[in-house]
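Board notes (copied after class):
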Amino acid sequence: MPLLIIEKVQYLKSFIFKHSSLSIVILFIFGCSSISQYQERNPNNMVNIDQNFKIEGKFKLSFMDSKETGYFELDKNLNTVSLTVGKNYLLPEEVLIFDIRDKLDLDRFLSVKNYQNEIQEIPVKYLLELCLGLKTLDFQYGTLKINLEYKNLNKKPSRVDIYGKDFELSLLVRKIWKS
């Protein structure tokens, strides 16, 4: 009986050794898969500011001679808004948590600090409404000029441009998910 077990173990070792590359590929494929938490992704559905949702996109912030680019995720859950900002997918992300009534300070995203010309703060709720297309016309907020661009007569903007005296913030809205 022990001889039979030893033969089975040796057979199993040789089988794994012969097919190790196939085993590694199968483990890699199943190990890297994920299940989406967001069920509804319909561009024709209107998202209300009171609902829970997630907005993904890219940004470009230009301030005088400084330029910052990267990607962002705005995740709204009840009255809490989580802003995840990254330069690229290899560097660590910065996650900021806001209440929907807070203001977003764009100065903190610039690598070069210039305190003589500070960028005006933007209310978080106002930024969400812009990205969702709830504000439909080009308009001004304080000293800021806002421009919205739409693709294919879509109700949600594909691009939000915010201009100030010395800066420009461009948000390219890629996906909006209801959660």
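Comment from the instructor: Residues 2-31 form one domain. Helices lie at 2-18, 20-31, 124-132.
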